[in-house]
Design a protein that fits this description.
homotrimer; 165 residues; alpha+beta; 60s Ribosomal Protein L30, Chain: A; five-stranded mixed sheet; two-stranded antiparallel ribbon; 3 helices; globular
């Protein structure tokens, strides 16, 4: 940071913040088909859709609120966000400090036909980004319902980050 | 416009067009969570998802066609578009003339399971943009159905505008 | 390519690859409303949502798997991809070699409420892009379910391509 790198315990600002928040990024999920987790084009890094996987296992399955409560779906949204960050981190050689702004989150929520609490669920990932990045974590957001999501996931999130060029 | 500003009734091209069309922009809706209505990155201004709110009240609720007719949903789409413009206007200090092109509209429509008139509904907002911006209002468009939308809204629209840099 | 154009049978790299794969681009579908098939902004070409039309007829209708099998939906996704390429080709005066990367595909799948094979369906278009463009065809991807799509289509795809500037 200051030109005098300490070789022991040297952490980036974002890594330090993650640690303070008690957060550990999951392993970056590997797509199992002909696509990639992230692409950088200009100063934008976009991710593929992330579902709430941890250690290769889908953690939240089924619609809200019949199969998962709003609180569980929030947790699912948060886990999707951590996976998006893990994917971004992998693309940035581990240096999340290169992220200068969270530009956009799209939050898709598998829902029963009378559900209307999308905003509350999406806050799970929105609040995560602001906790980590501060004002630079405040993004444009689209939240919407879906009758189904891949593998039966409860939530899916795609992210666009602005990065240093 | 011509270097001789008139201090009385001085209106931008877009403001004048809005007036001719008898349109009044609603108050820019304020997100109630950790996100923002718009972000400008380079020459692109993107909005968060807009639902058909006016004066803080959701005007169109429920699926098409059982709860709202196609005509009502068109009106809802149009109101979403006005909210997107209100948000953009707020980001541009009121100067919508900075918009050089409507790049993309995504129109999500809460629908019954046998609905197939998405295009007609989406025309509500597509026609609005062309009425206001002329050829520069012709955009790429994605219309799709959703079983549910935030707060039970009938339509949700997100927009990407190209702006002067 | 090499400054010595052959006037007979001169084909671009992508055209040659399409021929090897036995693929013929459909006629670029014309939007029937106030929007356009594609817009180029900077080095990004984005398409409107494409449904599985061929010769003006929708080829795949209804949800997966009750109305269309997973294999049929894969074929539908592939046809959507061909329509996206047809639209891009039209915007690029027929020269698909200007595409340097497939940046993103969003694949919307009309699904029954217990469907979870979105990835398999989306592979129909993902594999197509890699078959045509090789590594440059590997994209970020979002796949999700929808209870309905325009005209009752089984699949809808939107694409973002990076192009030479």
């Amino acid at each position: 940071m200051d030109g005098t790198p300490s070789y022991d315990g040297d952490m980036s600002v974002v890594q330090q913040r993650l640690q303070e928040l008690g957060l550990v990024l999951p392993c970056a999920p590997m797509p199992v088909a002909n696509y990639v987790p992230t692409i950088i084009c200009g100063n934008e890094l976009r991710t593929s859709g992330q579902i709430p996987m941890r250690d290769g296992q889908l953690q939240f399955k089924g619609t809200v609120p019949s199969c998962q409560s709003v609180e569980e779906a929030q947790e699912a949204a948060r886990l999707c966000g951590l996976n998006a960050l893990a994917a971004a981190s992998s693309a940035l050689d581990g240096d999340l400090d290169q992220i200068t702004r969270v530009l956009q989150l799209r939050v898709y929520i598998a829902s029963d036909s009378d559900f209307d609490g999308h905003s509350t669920v999406a806050n799970g990932v929105s609040d995560l980004m602001v906790a980590i990045f501060g004002d630079a974590g405040r993004h444009t957001r689209v939240a919407m319902g879906a009758n189904t999501l891949p593998l039966g996931a409860t939530v899916e999130v795609e992210a666009v980050f602005q990065i240093k060029t």
